[in-house]
Specification:
Elements: E1 2-7, H1 14-21, E2 40-45, H2 50-58, E3 63-64, E4 67-72, H3 87-95, E5 99-105, H4 121-152, H5 156-173, H6 185-192, E6 202-207, H7 220-233, E7 236-240, H8 242-248, H9 253-262, H10 269-281, E8 283-289, E9 294-300, H11 305-312, H12 314-318, E10 320-327, H13 328-334, H14 337-342, E11 347-349, E12 359-365
Parallel strand pairs: 1-4, 1-5, 3-9, 5-6, 6-7
Antiparallel strand pairs: 2-4, 8-9, 10-11, 10-12
Helix pairs in contact: 1-8, 4-5
């Protein structure tokens, strides 16, 4: 399961957002630094309107959406890479997640303390990124020391690794995170072995006041964040209101929709946040649908049919024969699998088929 770590400076709304996203009250949300020490973990279902339509077509009561595991990580302060605050724990917990959701405060409120004394989201982003890069710089330099002897002996593998390390070290020295380094696919495979913190796909969540969500596009803090991350980090920035998400926790779906409508917005920020996380990680969804259940499965873009089958069970991939396939839009347009077959929309795909987002698949295998 995908793991996304929620990070940020103290008092930016991390724990409030975590509680809202996971529909729990696990994380303590308080007006002081380090109210989160050990990370809280919660599983969040991925919103997908296609599931309801597939449920209707399949005639089943059981629907299993895709899921993301969110981890609420302790607030970070300047000097974390040297162990300040809860720095060492913070960095260790980040190393264990697939993606980072960095919550950035984009609202003024005299009653909510800011660890730096004022609101400046770009400065806050740079504080966190600097600590991640400093930790990575230490990792890279130690790694280079370890491979130096093999490089001198003429080891080609060590030389290739060192060449990648040099590229990353130069970027980090220049204040650029590892994820901005231009690497070939082969070099990316090598770099993945280093588990660098600043190489994690990152989404910035601009946390705004409840009253400002509908007009967040003109919020000067949000504008600054979007300009900065697009220019310097090639990352996505989405707008959320942690307080609104918290208010939605105890509401029924219809009540939540009405509440959001009264605020002038069509949906909460959670859907956009999860979609952005999927996009950053290159993920997509395919479905299985039958009388027993309708289920969403998460795979990487570019995965072949056998690889997609392997997400269900390794035996499916090992003994893959073929995949009965119909595109979601075609299935909905036809109204049933039988009608899709009659109209030639239902087809058989082999081992080389690259699964598309929204494909509805039935695997044939033999072990």
């Amino acid at each position: 399961m995908l793991r996304a770590g929620i990070v940020g400076l103290p008092n930016v709304g991390k724990s409030t957002l975590f509680n809202a996203v996971t529909r729990t009250r696990k994380a303590e949300a308080a007006n002081y630094p380090f109210c989160t020490i050990d990370p809280n973990v919660g599983v969040v279902t991925v919103p997908d309107e296609r599931l309801a339509e597939l449920q209707r077509i399949a005639g089943t009561r059981v629907v299993i959406p895709a899921a993301v595991e969110f981890v609420d990580i302790a607030g970070l302060v300047k000097g974390a890479s040297d162990g300040e605050g809860l720095g060492n724990k913070f960095l260790t917990h980040i190393r264990e997640v697939d993606a980072i959701v960095q919550v950035v405060r984009c609202f003024d409120d005299a009653d909510v303390l800011h660890v730096s004394g004022s609101v400046d989201p770009v400065r806050d982003i740079e504080v966190i990124n600097t600590e991640l890069m400093l930790a990575d710089l230490e990792t890279v330099r130690k790694r280079r020391e370890r491979v130096a002897k093999e490089v001198k002996r003429g080891d080609k593998g060590a030389a290739a690794e060192d060449a990648v390390l040099v590229k990353i070290e130069n970027a980090l020295d220049a204040g650029k995170p590892a994820l901005t380094v231009s690497l070939t696919p082969d070099e990316r495979v090598i770099a993945a072995q280093f588990f660098l913190l600043s190489d994690k796909p990152t989404i910035f969540a601009c946390n705004v006041k409840e009253s400002e969500l509908a007009t967040a596009g003109s919020n000067p803090y949000v504008v600054k964040v979007r300009e900065y991350v697009n220019t310097h980090l090639s990352c996505d920035a989405v707008v959320i209101s942690a307080q609104i998400e918290s208010d939605l926790v105890d509401l029924e779906q219809s009540e939540a929709a009405e509440f959001l409508k009264s605020l002038g917005v069509e949906e909460s920020g959670i859907g956009a946040l999860i979609r952005a996380t999927y996009e950053q990680l290159g993920l997509q969804t395919y479905f299985t649908a039958g009388e027993k259940e309708v289920r969403a499965w998460t795979i990487h873009r570019g995965d072949t049919a056998p690889q997609a089958a392997g997400v269900i069970h390794s035996d499916f991939e090992r003994g893959f024969i073929k995949a009965e396939t119909v595109a979601y839009d075609d299935l909905v347009a036809c109204g049933s699998v039988a009608a899709a077959r009659d109209k030639g929309r239902y087809r058989m795909e082999g081992k080389e088929y690259v699964v598309q987002d929204g494909d509805v698949l039935l695997f044939k295998f033999n072990v």
